[in-house]
Amino acid sequence: MAFPLAASSSRPFIGHHPFKFVAHPSPFAPSCLLPGTSLRNSTNFPTRRRLRMESQSCCSSFPDATSADLDVYSAGLIREEDLLIVGPGVLGRIVAEKWRLENPACKIFGQTVTTNHHDELLKIGITPSLRDSKTTHKFPYVIFCAPPSQTVDYPSELRLAASKWSGEGSFLFTSSTAVYDCEDNGWCSEDSPVLPIGKSPRADVLLKAENEVLEVGGCVYYAMELADCLDFQYSSSKGAHLYWLEKGTVDSRPDHILNLIHYEDAASLAITILKKQLRSRVFLGCDSHPLSRVELMDIVNRSRKFNKTFQGFTGTSGPLGKRLSNLKTRAELGWEPKYQSFESFLGL
């Protein structure tokens, strides 16, 4: 499945997506910027306010990387289809697999905080390096999939990643729908309002990080893969439904709305955005078939594909969610998910 795309918005101040700055009157129009240009040098976009971080230090954000001399970017190595994945976890590895299928001659690089998974990355054809590895080379395609939980200054990590982008191809940041200003199970789409700065510390971090990306011409993609985000990606071996099934009974309210996307679809949408080489846009990934918690687990039980039966949710309080639709994303990008709904994934 897939999440809805955030289309261009028309809000010129902090706390709202800067899609408004697209000079074309239609939200579905192609990007007004040519590949390689940014908001800084384009006459089609007015100057945007930039969020200034309280701390400008990005080197202190992550634990010290001992292999600072690990420089895998030898002279002449970077080619026009090469890809850098910052945070090559589950989603990043699927993106790598699909990108290589479309670009067999490319090289794929993975930037990590530690060397813990470098052997795994090498086995699947991803050349690993540490965050602080020294390199003067820039990449035509960069996707940032690292969560904010690993750093005390998330926006600075986006600035660092942006400094490794050549300005050609695409720079894509996978963010979260937690920034949308909706907590009553209401509907949201690409141009729905986001939370104002100061209302939610978590959303503040994400919005400031998004601003760093959009200012240099990168794109934001709501892939909804945060540990504390109730919207989620899933597969046959991962997902909240499997956790709840294992628990049997969960102390959460049953009517909270979830938005879903299969990992394969999340990756295919990311690749579609990268290939379009758009500038300063926000996209949303979802299957546009939101479900309540109880509806989700009823589908799991009806599928008869599992050897356990979920008993139920017992909570009566807690926050509600939001219902997402990404019809604009699909229309603009010409993209459709392989799994149209969670039900179709389970063969119902």
Write up this protein.
The chain is an alpha/beta fold. 25% of the residues lie in helices and 17% in strands. The chain is built from 9 helices and 15 strands. The longest helix has 15 residues, at 201-215. The model is unreliable at 1-75 and 225-230 (pLDDT under 50).
Question: What are the SSEs and their pairings?
Answer:
Elements: E1 83-86, H1 90-102, E2 108-112, H2 118-123, E3 126-130, E4 139-144, H3 154-162, E5 165-175, E6 186-188, H4 201-215, E7 219-222, E8 232-234, H5 240-247, E9 249-250, E10 257-258, E11 260-262, H6 263-276, E12 282-284, E13 291-292, H7 293-303, E14 312-313, E15 322-324, H8 327-333, H9 342-345
Parallel strand pairs: 1-2, 1-4, 2-3, 4-5, 5-7, 6-15, 7-12, 8-11, 9-14
Antiparallel strand pairs: 10-13
Helix pairs in contact: 1-6, 3-4
What is the mean predicted local confidence, pLDDT?
Answer: 80
Percent helix range:
25-40%
| Helix-and-strand structural type | alpha/beta
Q: How far is the N terminus from the C terminus? A: 15 Å
**Which value, in Å, is the CA radius of gyration?**
20 Å
Summarize the main sheet: 7 strands, parallel
Identify low-pLDDT runs: 1-75, 225-230
Oligomer category: single chain
Order of helices and strands: EHEHEEHEEHEEHEEEHEEHEEHH
Strand neighbour order, sheet with most strands: 3-2-1-4-5-7-12
**Residue fraction in strands:** 15-25%
Number-wise, the strands total: 15
What is the overall shape? Answer: globular
The number of helical runs is 9
